Amino acid sequence: MTQILTNTGLYIIELIKLLLFAFGISSVKIKSPKLLAVSAAASVFAVMAISSVLNIYDYAILYGVFASFACIFALEKKRSVLFLLFEYLSICILDITNSNIVMLVTDLQIDRSSSYHEVDFMINSLTIPILLILRLVKSKYADKFPEFRISARYIVLMSIGQFLFMVYISSLTLFSFTGGSTIRDRRLTVIACLSCVVFVVVVFLLFFHKSNSVQKQKEIEYTRDLLRWQDKYYTYLLQKEEETKRFRHDIKNHLYAINTLLEYDQYDELDRYLKDLQIKMTPLNSGIHTGVRLVDVILHELSEEHSDVTVEWEGQLSENTNIAMMDMCTVFSNLLSNAFEAAQKCDDKWVKAKVSSESGALYVMISNSTSHELKYSGGAVATTKTGSGHGYGIRNVEDVVRKYSGKFSIKCSDGAVSAEAVLLN
Asked: What is the CATH superfamily name and number for domain 288-424?
Protein backbone atom coordinates (compact mmCIF):
# COMPACT_ATOMS: atom_id res chain seq x y z
CA MET A 1 0.00 0.00 0.00
CA THR A 2 2.87 2.37 0.82
CA GLN A 3 4.35 1.72 -2.61
CA ILE A 4 1.06 2.61 -4.34
CA LEU A 5 0.60 5.81 -2.30
CA THR A 6 4.20 6.90 -2.87
CA ASN A 7 4.14 6.31 -6.61
CA THR A 8 0.73 7.93 -6.98
CA GLY A 9 1.73 10.97 -4.93
CA LEU A 10 4.95 11.54 -6.89
CA TYR A 11 3.08 11.07 -10.18
CA ILE A 12 0.38 13.59 -9.24
CA ILE A 13 3.12 16.13 -8.48
CA GLU A 14 4.68 15.46 -11.91
CA LEU A 15 1.29 15.73 -13.61
CA ILE A 16 0.48 19.04 -11.88
CA LYS A 17 3.80 20.51 -13.04
CA LEU A 18 3.22 19.55 -16.66
CA LEU A 19 -0.40 20.76 -16.60
CA LEU A 20 0.68 24.10 -15.13
CA PHE A 21 3.44 24.59 -17.67
CA ALA A 22 1.57 23.38 -20.76
CA PHE A 23 -1.90 24.80 -20.20
CA GLY A 24 -1.32 27.50 -17.60
CA ILE A 25 1.81 29.21 -18.87
CA SER A 26 2.21 28.22 -22.52
CA SER A 27 -1.57 28.07 -23.11
CA VAL A 28 -1.42 25.04 -25.38
CA LYS A 29 -4.89 24.54 -26.86
CA ILE A 30 -6.98 21.60 -25.65
CA LYS A 31 -10.12 20.01 -27.05
CA SER A 32 -12.04 20.51 -23.82
CA PRO A 33 -11.29 20.87 -20.08
CA LYS A 34 -13.52 17.87 -19.41
CA LEU A 35 -11.46 15.64 -21.71
CA LEU A 36 -8.25 16.82 -20.04
CA ALA A 37 -9.70 16.08 -16.58
CA VAL A 38 -10.81 12.58 -17.65
CA SER A 39 -7.44 11.86 -19.26
CA ALA A 40 -5.54 13.04 -16.17
CA ALA A 41 -7.76 11.04 -13.82
CA ALA A 42 -7.38 7.92 -15.98
CA SER A 43 -3.59 8.26 -15.89
CA VAL A 44 -3.64 8.50 -12.09
CA PHE A 45 -5.66 5.27 -11.82
CA ALA A 46 -3.30 3.63 -14.34
CA VAL A 47 -0.29 4.54 -12.18
CA MET A 48 -2.06 3.15 -9.10
CA ALA A 49 -2.81 -0.10 -10.90
CA ILE A 50 0.74 -0.51 -12.22
CA SER A 51 2.22 0.37 -8.83
CA SER A 52 0.52 -2.67 -7.33
CA VAL A 53 2.81 -4.93 -9.38
CA LEU A 54 5.76 -2.66 -10.23
CA ASN A 55 7.59 -0.01 -8.23
CA ILE A 56 7.55 2.91 -10.68
CA TYR A 57 9.73 4.77 -8.18
CA ASP A 58 12.68 2.75 -9.54
CA TYR A 59 11.85 3.93 -13.08
CA ALA A 60 11.20 7.62 -12.46
CA ILE A 61 11.05 8.42 -16.17
CA LEU A 62 7.69 6.62 -16.31
CA TYR A 63 6.14 9.47 -14.32
CA GLY A 64 6.89 11.85 -17.19
CA VAL A 65 5.75 9.33 -19.81
CA PHE A 66 2.35 8.86 -18.18
CA ALA A 67 1.91 12.61 -17.58
CA SER A 68 2.81 13.39 -21.21
CA PHE A 69 0.34 10.85 -22.57
CA ALA A 70 -2.39 12.22 -20.29
CA CYS A 71 -1.89 15.66 -21.84
CA ILE A 72 -1.46 14.44 -25.43
CA PHE A 73 -4.94 12.88 -25.52
CA ALA A 74 -6.49 16.28 -24.76
CA LEU A 75 -4.47 18.36 -27.25
CA GLU A 76 -6.48 20.24 -29.86
CA LYS A 77 -3.67 19.98 -32.42
CA LYS A 78 -1.36 16.99 -32.44
CA ARG A 79 1.52 19.12 -33.70
CA SER A 80 1.59 20.58 -30.16
CA VAL A 81 3.12 17.29 -28.99
CA LEU A 82 6.60 18.57 -29.88
CA PHE A 83 6.11 21.67 -27.78
CA LEU A 84 4.82 19.49 -24.93
CA LEU A 85 8.09 17.53 -25.12
CA PHE A 86 10.06 20.78 -24.93
CA GLU A 87 8.06 21.82 -21.85
CA TYR A 88 8.63 18.52 -20.09
CA LEU A 89 12.40 18.73 -20.68
CA SER A 90 12.28 22.25 -19.21
CA ILE A 91 10.57 20.88 -16.10
CA CYS A 92 13.21 18.14 -15.81
CA ILE A 93 16.00 20.74 -15.87
CA LEU A 94 14.22 22.76 -13.16
CA ASP A 95 13.74 19.63 -11.06
CA ILE A 96 17.41 18.64 -11.31
CA THR A 97 18.46 22.18 -10.42
CA ASN A 98 16.15 22.31 -7.39
CA SER A 99 17.36 18.89 -6.29
CA ASN A 100 21.01 19.94 -6.48
CA ILE A 101 20.37 23.16 -4.57
CA VAL A 102 18.54 21.27 -1.79
CA MET A 103 21.29 18.66 -1.52
CA LEU A 104 23.97 21.36 -1.48
CA VAL A 105 22.24 23.34 1.28
CA THR A 106 21.28 20.32 3.42
CA ASP A 107 24.44 18.32 2.69
CA LEU A 108 22.40 15.37 1.43
CA GLN A 109 23.83 12.61 -0.75
CA ILE A 110 21.98 10.98 -3.63
CA ASP A 111 22.06 7.65 -1.82
CA ARG A 112 20.44 9.22 1.26
CA SER A 113 17.90 11.36 -0.59
CA SER A 114 16.54 8.41 -2.54
CA SER A 115 15.93 6.55 0.71
CA TYR A 116 13.53 9.10 2.15
CA HIS A 117 10.24 9.59 0.41
CA GLU A 118 9.57 12.83 2.27
CA VAL A 119 12.69 14.35 0.71
CA ASP A 120 11.61 13.23 -2.76
CA PHE A 121 8.19 14.76 -2.26
CA MET A 122 9.73 18.06 -1.16
CA ILE A 123 12.29 18.21 -3.97
CA ASN A 124 9.76 17.31 -6.66
CA SER A 125 7.29 19.86 -5.30
CA LEU A 126 9.70 22.80 -5.39
CA THR A 127 9.07 23.42 -9.09
CA ILE A 128 5.32 23.93 -8.53
CA PRO A 129 5.63 27.31 -6.69
CA ILE A 130 7.98 28.52 -9.44
CA LEU A 131 5.44 27.59 -12.12
CA LEU A 132 2.61 29.19 -10.12
CA ILE A 133 4.56 32.45 -9.93
CA LEU A 134 5.15 32.33 -13.70
CA ARG A 135 1.43 31.65 -14.21
CA LEU A 136 0.50 34.71 -12.12
CA VAL A 137 2.98 36.86 -14.04
CA LYS A 138 1.48 35.73 -17.32
CA SER A 139 -2.06 36.40 -16.07
CA LYS A 140 -1.10 39.93 -15.08
CA TYR A 141 0.62 40.68 -18.38
CA ALA A 142 -1.52 38.49 -20.63
CA ASP A 143 -1.52 41.04 -23.46
CA LYS A 144 2.29 40.89 -23.58
CA PHE A 145 2.35 37.16 -24.25
CA PRO A 146 1.23 36.29 -27.79
CA GLU A 147 0.20 32.79 -28.75
CA PHE A 148 3.14 30.55 -29.62
CA ARG A 149 3.62 30.22 -33.37
CA ILE A 150 6.95 28.43 -33.75
CA SER A 151 7.78 25.94 -36.49
CA ALA A 152 8.30 22.30 -35.56
CA ARG A 153 11.90 22.50 -36.78
CA TYR A 154 12.85 25.11 -34.17
CA ILE A 155 11.11 23.20 -31.39
CA VAL A 156 12.94 19.99 -32.31
CA LEU A 157 16.31 21.77 -32.34
CA MET A 158 15.65 23.40 -28.97
CA SER A 159 14.43 20.11 -27.49
CA ILE A 160 17.61 18.36 -28.60
CA GLY A 161 19.64 21.12 -26.97
CA GLN A 162 17.67 20.76 -23.75
CA PHE A 163 18.03 16.98 -23.76
CA LEU A 164 21.80 17.24 -24.10
CA PHE A 165 21.91 19.80 -21.29
CA MET A 166 19.82 17.49 -19.12
CA VAL A 167 22.13 14.53 -19.76
CA TYR A 168 25.13 16.73 -18.95
CA ILE A 169 23.83 18.07 -15.63
CA SER A 170 22.49 14.62 -14.66
CA SER A 171 25.97 13.19 -15.12
CA LEU A 172 27.46 16.02 -13.08
CA THR A 173 24.89 15.42 -10.35
CA LEU A 174 25.72 11.71 -10.11
CA PHE A 175 29.41 12.56 -9.86
CA SER A 176 29.14 15.50 -7.45
CA PHE A 177 26.51 14.29 -4.98
CA THR A 178 27.86 10.84 -4.21
CA GLY A 179 30.49 9.82 -1.72
CA GLY A 180 33.98 11.24 -2.30
CA SER A 181 32.90 14.51 -3.94
CA THR A 182 33.97 17.89 -2.59
CA ILE A 183 31.91 20.97 -1.78
CA ARG A 184 33.58 22.68 -4.74
CA ASP A 185 32.29 19.97 -7.10
CA ARG A 186 28.78 20.45 -5.77
CA ARG A 187 28.87 24.20 -6.17
CA LEU A 188 30.13 23.90 -9.74
CA THR A 189 27.33 21.45 -10.47
CA VAL A 190 24.71 23.84 -9.11
CA ILE A 191 26.21 26.65 -11.21
CA ALA A 192 26.00 24.40 -14.28
CA CYS A 193 22.36 23.64 -13.49
CA LEU A 194 21.53 27.31 -13.06
CA SER A 195 23.20 27.97 -16.41
CA CYS A 196 20.85 25.44 -17.99
CA VAL A 197 17.88 27.18 -16.35
CA VAL A 198 19.08 30.47 -17.83
CA PHE A 199 19.25 28.69 -21.19
CA VAL A 200 15.63 27.57 -20.83
CA VAL A 201 14.54 31.12 -19.93
CA VAL A 202 16.43 32.60 -22.88
CA VAL A 203 14.88 30.04 -25.22
CA PHE A 204 11.38 30.94 -24.01
CA LEU A 205 12.13 34.64 -24.43
CA LEU A 206 13.25 33.91 -27.99
CA PHE A 207 10.02 31.99 -28.53
CA PHE A 208 7.96 34.90 -27.27
CA HIS A 209 9.93 37.33 -29.41
CA LYS A 210 9.44 35.18 -32.48
CA SER A 211 5.73 34.76 -31.76
CA ASN A 212 5.36 38.49 -31.24
CA SER A 213 7.09 39.16 -34.57
CA VAL A 214 4.75 36.75 -36.30
CA GLN A 215 1.76 38.44 -34.64
CA LYS A 216 2.93 41.89 -35.74
CA GLN A 217 3.44 40.63 -39.29
CA LYS A 218 -0.09 39.27 -39.28
CA GLU A 219 -1.50 42.59 -38.13
CA ILE A 220 0.37 44.30 -40.97
CA GLU A 221 -1.08 41.80 -43.45
CA TYR A 222 -4.58 42.33 -42.04
CA THR A 223 -4.21 46.10 -42.37
CA ARG A 224 -2.89 45.74 -45.91
CA ASP A 225 -5.86 43.55 -46.88
CA LEU A 226 -8.29 45.99 -45.30
CA LEU A 227 -6.75 48.95 -47.13
CA ARG A 228 -6.80 47.01 -50.39
CA TRP A 229 -10.49 46.22 -50.06
CA GLN A 230 -11.27 49.76 -48.94
CA ASP A 231 -9.47 51.07 -52.01
CA LYS A 232 -11.57 48.78 -54.19
CA TYR A 233 -14.67 49.90 -52.31
CA TYR A 234 -14.07 53.60 -52.95
CA THR A 235 -13.16 52.91 -56.59
CA TYR A 236 -16.38 50.96 -56.89
CA LEU A 237 -18.39 53.83 -55.38
CA LEU A 238 -16.82 56.35 -57.77
CA GLN A 239 -17.59 54.09 -60.71
CA LYS A 240 -21.23 53.73 -59.66
CA GLU A 241 -21.51 57.46 -59.07
CA GLU A 242 -20.20 58.17 -62.60
CA GLU A 243 -22.60 55.65 -64.15
CA THR A 244 -25.50 57.15 -62.18
CA LYS A 245 -24.63 60.67 -63.38
CA ARG A 246 -24.52 59.50 -66.98
CA PHE A 247 -27.89 57.77 -66.65
CA ARG A 248 -29.47 60.84 -65.04
CA HIS A 249 -28.11 62.94 -67.88
CA ASP A 250 -29.90 60.72 -70.40
CA ILE A 251 -33.12 60.19 -68.44
CA LYS A 252 -34.94 63.06 -70.14
CA ASN A 253 -34.15 61.64 -73.55
CA HIS A 254 -35.34 58.21 -72.45
CA LEU A 255 -38.62 59.62 -71.14
CA TYR A 256 -39.14 61.53 -74.38
CA ALA A 257 -38.53 58.38 -76.44
CA ILE A 258 -40.95 56.34 -74.32
CA ASN A 259 -43.63 59.02 -74.59
CA THR A 260 -43.21 59.18 -78.39
CA LEU A 261 -43.55 55.40 -78.76
CA LEU A 262 -46.72 55.49 -76.66
CA GLU A 263 -48.24 58.29 -78.74
CA TYR A 264 -47.76 56.32 -81.95
CA ASP A 265 -48.94 53.03 -80.39
CA GLN A 266 -45.63 51.32 -81.19
CA TYR A 267 -45.91 48.87 -78.33
CA ASP A 268 -43.53 46.27 -79.71
CA GLU A 269 -40.84 48.91 -80.09
CA LEU A 270 -41.66 50.23 -76.64
CA ASP A 271 -41.26 46.73 -75.17
CA ARG A 272 -37.84 46.31 -76.80
CA TYR A 273 -36.80 49.78 -75.72
CA LEU A 274 -37.76 49.13 -72.08
CA LYS A 275 -35.89 45.82 -72.07
CA ASP A 276 -32.77 47.53 -73.44
CA LEU A 277 -33.15 50.24 -70.84
CA GLN A 278 -33.47 47.64 -68.09
CA ILE A 279 -30.25 45.97 -69.25
CA LYS A 280 -28.52 49.33 -69.22
CA MET A 281 -29.74 49.98 -65.67
CA THR A 282 -28.50 46.60 -64.36
CA PRO A 283 -24.91 47.77 -63.72
CA LEU A 284 -26.31 50.54 -61.52
CA ASN A 285 -27.67 47.92 -59.19
CA SER A 286 -24.91 46.99 -56.75
CA GLY A 287 -26.19 43.37 -56.59
CA ILE A 288 -26.32 41.57 -53.25
CA HIS A 289 -26.58 43.78 -50.18
CA THR A 290 -24.99 42.04 -47.20
CA GLY A 291 -25.50 44.88 -44.72
CA VAL A 292 -21.79 45.74 -44.56
CA ARG A 293 -20.51 47.79 -47.48
CA LEU A 294 -17.00 46.37 -47.36
CA VAL A 295 -18.36 42.82 -47.60
CA ASP A 296 -20.56 44.00 -50.49
CA VAL A 297 -17.43 45.02 -52.37
CA ILE A 298 -15.61 41.76 -51.56
CA LEU A 299 -18.58 39.79 -52.85
CA HIS A 300 -18.94 42.02 -55.91
CA GLU A 301 -15.25 41.78 -56.85
CA LEU A 302 -15.21 38.00 -56.52
CA SER A 303 -18.48 37.70 -58.46
CA GLU A 304 -17.02 39.82 -61.25
CA GLU A 305 -13.82 37.77 -61.29
CA HIS A 306 -15.74 34.46 -61.32
CA SER A 307 -18.74 35.53 -63.37
CA ASP A 308 -19.85 31.97 -64.18
CA VAL A 309 -20.24 31.04 -60.50
CA THR A 310 -23.80 31.25 -59.15
CA VAL A 311 -24.05 33.14 -55.86
CA GLU A 312 -26.75 32.94 -53.19
CA TRP A 313 -26.76 35.11 -50.06
CA GLU A 314 -29.12 34.67 -47.11
CA GLY A 315 -29.32 36.99 -44.12
CA GLN A 316 -28.01 40.43 -43.22
CA LEU A 317 -24.88 41.64 -41.48
CA SER A 318 -24.72 44.76 -39.35
CA GLU A 319 -22.05 47.45 -39.21
CA ASN A 320 -23.18 48.18 -35.64
CA THR A 321 -21.12 45.41 -34.07
CA ASN A 322 -18.14 44.96 -31.77
CA ILE A 323 -16.36 42.93 -34.43
CA ALA A 324 -13.63 45.11 -35.95
CA MET A 325 -13.97 45.82 -39.66
CA MET A 326 -10.45 44.45 -40.19
CA ASP A 327 -11.52 41.12 -38.67
CA MET A 328 -14.75 41.10 -40.66
CA CYS A 329 -12.70 41.64 -43.81
CA THR A 330 -10.32 38.81 -42.89
CA VAL A 331 -13.13 36.30 -42.36
CA PHE A 332 -15.18 37.06 -45.45
CA SER A 333 -12.35 37.79 -47.89
CA ASN A 334 -10.61 34.50 -47.09
CA LEU A 335 -13.69 32.27 -46.88
CA LEU A 336 -15.33 33.75 -49.97
CA SER A 337 -12.08 33.71 -51.97
CA ASN A 338 -11.55 30.04 -51.16
CA ALA A 339 -15.17 29.25 -51.99
CA PHE A 340 -15.12 30.99 -55.38
CA GLU A 341 -11.76 29.50 -56.37
CA ALA A 342 -12.91 25.97 -55.49
CA ALA A 343 -16.29 26.36 -57.22
CA GLN A 344 -14.59 27.69 -60.35
CA LYS A 345 -12.96 24.29 -60.90
CA CYS A 346 -16.28 22.39 -60.87
CA ASP A 347 -18.83 21.70 -63.58
CA ASP A 348 -21.59 22.80 -61.21
CA LYS A 349 -20.30 26.18 -60.04
CA TRP A 350 -22.05 27.66 -57.01
CA VAL A 351 -21.39 29.50 -53.76
CA LYS A 352 -23.94 29.92 -50.96
CA ALA A 353 -23.57 32.14 -47.92
CA LYS A 354 -25.78 32.33 -44.85
CA VAL A 355 -25.30 34.84 -42.06
CA SER A 356 -27.25 35.70 -38.92
CA SER A 357 -26.82 37.51 -35.61
CA GLU A 358 -28.38 35.80 -32.65
CA SER A 359 -27.85 36.22 -28.90
CA GLY A 360 -24.83 38.46 -29.36
CA ALA A 361 -23.10 36.04 -31.75
CA LEU A 362 -22.36 36.32 -35.47
CA TYR A 363 -22.99 33.09 -37.37
CA VAL A 364 -21.41 32.62 -40.80
CA MET A 365 -21.74 29.60 -43.08
CA ILE A 366 -20.23 29.63 -46.57
CA SER A 367 -20.68 26.59 -48.80
CA ASN A 368 -19.42 25.87 -52.29
CA SER A 369 -19.21 23.09 -54.83
CA THR A 370 -15.90 21.25 -54.97
CA SER A 371 -14.20 18.69 -57.18
CA HIS A 372 -11.88 17.23 -54.55
CA GLU A 373 -11.85 16.12 -50.92
CA LEU A 374 -10.26 18.18 -48.15
CA LYS A 375 -6.65 17.41 -47.32
CA TYR A 376 -5.22 17.70 -43.83
CA SER A 377 -1.72 18.42 -42.57
CA GLY A 378 -0.82 18.47 -38.87
CA GLY A 379 -4.49 18.35 -37.90
CA ALA A 380 -5.38 21.41 -40.00
CA VAL A 381 -6.86 21.82 -43.47
CA ALA A 382 -4.02 21.91 -46.01
CA THR A 383 -3.96 24.20 -49.02
CA THR A 384 -4.22 22.71 -52.52
CA LYS A 385 -2.48 25.70 -54.10
CA THR A 386 1.08 25.35 -55.33
CA GLY A 387 4.01 27.66 -54.62
CA SER A 388 4.87 29.66 -51.54
CA GLY A 389 2.70 32.20 -49.75
CA HIS A 390 -0.40 30.00 -49.64
CA GLY A 391 -2.21 28.21 -46.84
CA TYR A 392 -2.51 31.16 -44.47
CA GLY A 393 -6.11 32.17 -45.20
CA ILE A 394 -7.80 29.55 -43.04
CA ARG A 395 -5.25 30.09 -40.25
CA ASN A 396 -6.03 33.81 -40.29
CA VAL A 397 -9.75 33.06 -40.05
CA GLU A 398 -9.08 30.70 -37.12
CA ASP A 399 -7.09 33.45 -35.39
CA VAL A 400 -9.98 35.90 -35.73
CA VAL A 401 -12.51 33.33 -34.49
CA ARG A 402 -10.28 32.53 -31.51
CA LYS A 403 -9.96 36.27 -30.78
CA TYR A 404 -13.75 36.47 -30.33
CA SER A 405 -13.94 33.20 -28.34
CA GLY A 406 -15.83 31.54 -31.16
CA LYS A 407 -15.78 28.27 -33.06
CA PHE A 408 -14.71 27.37 -36.58
CA SER A 409 -15.12 24.18 -38.60
CA ILE A 410 -14.87 22.94 -42.19
CA LYS A 411 -16.77 19.94 -43.51
CA CYS A 412 -16.80 18.22 -46.89
CA SER A 413 -19.54 15.89 -48.12
CA ASP A 414 -21.45 15.10 -51.32
CA GLY A 415 -19.31 17.35 -53.50
CA ALA A 416 -19.67 20.40 -51.28
CA VAL A 417 -17.51 22.17 -48.71
CA SER A 418 -19.04 24.10 -45.83
CA ALA A 419 -17.11 26.48 -43.60
CA GLU A 420 -18.88 27.57 -40.41
CA ALA A 421 -17.71 30.32 -38.06
CA VAL A 422 -19.30 31.63 -34.88
CA LEU A 423 -17.95 34.89 -33.41
CA LEU A 424 -19.13 36.24 -30.06
CA ASN A 425 -19.47 40.00 -30.35
From this structure: Histidine kinase-like ATPase, C-terminal domain (3.30.565.10)
